[in-house]
Amino acid sequence: MSDGRGETVSGPGIAAATLILYYESDGQAARHLMIQRTAQMRFAPNALVFPGGRVDEDDHRTATDANLVDVTLGEPVELAHRVTAIREMLEEVGILVAFQSSMPVDAVALQTELKRKVPFSTLLGDNGIKLDLAALLPWAQWHPKFQSHRRFDTRFYITRHEGDRTVTADVDEVGQARWLHAHEAINEAEAGTAKIIFPTLCNLERLAAYPAFEAAKEHLGNIECIPISPCIEGDEHGESWICIPEDRGYPLTRRLVSTLQAP
Fold it and tell me: Which of 51-60, 85-94, 113-122, 144-153 shows the lowest per-residue confidence on average (mean pLDDT)?
């Protein structure tokens, strides 16, 4: 399979979605909600990441239900990823994003029901909630091709968040949750006080270049959202570099493998 630019992708990955919140106040650079994964997680334990997770069957059902979403916004698979991003935000940190309801919505109650394995579509329908999927803007799609185990195909989205910032973390998945400026997280990675894997680091650098949501939105109008498949290249000194294409909107597109933190 090719990503449209001749970059081979070795087989399908696990479909996943991630949501990056832009919270702006007092004219400062936006803060983004990040979570530290627990040490028990199989993939990237202890890493600082944005909330997200796998697309499940119920997300696809939700994405095709006109009572729950605007099904005319796009292809069902794309809409299912947006549903996943919203659901995972609620499930992991108890924050409501893109919820439309004529009545107040109890985030903690819904989060508790999700924890009990009640389908998201059922919770939405029973509570008269519709999701505003148009509020999520496609930011990127990452599909590493050189991993042989637990290869993810993850779609990233951004949205402006003006609601409650109170976090109720799912302790089974989230060690801690923090609202951080992009540059703060980058500094922690450089200092070795936070574990941040390559895709997250790249996205933080891109977010730092667009610290206001409107600027990020304008930036997206000039970038085609084509899957990114990092590759490993060697140089004349025997060093290995991990590289991504230069036309996907990222300030830095290559790094020495030896300087990166392992997943």
Answer: 144-153
Buried b (16+ CB within 10 A) or exposed e, 17-28: bbbbbbbbeeee
| Cα–chain center distance at 131 | 17
Q: Which residues contact 150 (CB under 8 A, 6 or more apart)?
A: 14, 42, 43
**For the stretch 89-120, what's the b/e string if a residue is b when 16 or more beta carbons lie within 10 angstroms of its beta carbon?**
bbbbbbbbbbbeeeeeeebeebbebbeeeebb
Q: Are 227 and 11 in contact (CB under 8 A)?
A: no
Task: Write down the pLDDT at residue 214.
Answer: 97
Strands 152-160 and 14-22: parallel
Length of the chain: 263
User: Which of 50-54, 195-199, 256-260 shows the lowest mean pLDDT across its residues?
Assistant: 256-260
Within the chain, strands assigned E span 14-22, 31-37, 48-49, 52-54, 99-100, 130-131, 137-142, 152-160, 174-181, 231-234, 240-243, 254-256
The residue that leads in pLDDT, 21 or 7, is 21
Cα–Cα distance, 21 to 179 (Å, whole number): 9
pLDDT score recorded for residue 11: 55
